[in-house]
Amino acid sequence: MNTDNKNYQITRREALCSLAALPMITFGLTIPDKTVPSVHYGSVIAQCTASVEACWELGKSSEASDVMLAFQSASKYQPLLETIARQSSQHRKEALDLATRYALLVGVTAHALRIDCFLLPKETLDSTDNYINAIESLLYEIVVYSHWSPSLASS
After folding, report:
1. How far does Cα 23 stand from its chain's mean position?
2. Is the pLDDT of residue 42 over 90?
3. CA–CA separation, 73 and 153 (whole Å)
């Protein structure tokens, strides 16, 4: 970002990247095994709601770094939202909805990264390939869970 030029305005891409990373930065999700206190669940839901749209836009980018940011962000938020859904009846419906959106986003971006594998370092591709299998299983669980537990999803 150009801070020297007073007339400089943030680019669309910079704004999307900031929105995509907002929950990760705000709640310290880059720290391994970091948990979010339940009093912050409402804020997590609000920020993840804004972030999911930015992640979808970045996921459609032709830039591998944008797709990777969308993948990494969604990969962080999706399990957190599942935890919120399990632990908070107040936020369950919103958390399940967002967790599903992020799970789909992870699958789509993982697929895009796999197709564009020549742009990625080998270690990233290896972890992405492993992650794709886990996401396929997760998507199946979410579909089955929401189909067989409609009362949970609507509470």
Report:
1. 9
2. yes
3. 24
Residues 44 and 36 sit within 8 Å (Cβ to Cβ): yes
3-class SS letters over the chain: CCCCCCCCCCCHHHHHHHHHHHHHHHCCCCCCCCCCCHHHHHHHHHHHHHHHHHHHHHHCCCCHHHHHHHHHHHHHHHHHHHHHHHHCCCCHHHHHHHHHHHHHHHHHHHHHHHHCHHHCCHHHHHHHHHHHHHHHHHHHHHHHHHHHCHHHHHC
Taking the C-alpha atoms of residue 81 and residue 55, their distance in angstroms, rounded to an integer, is 15
In this prediction the pTM is 0.69
DSSP helix/strand/coil, 39: helix
Closest listed residue to residue 26, CA positions, set 59, 86, 70, 73: 73
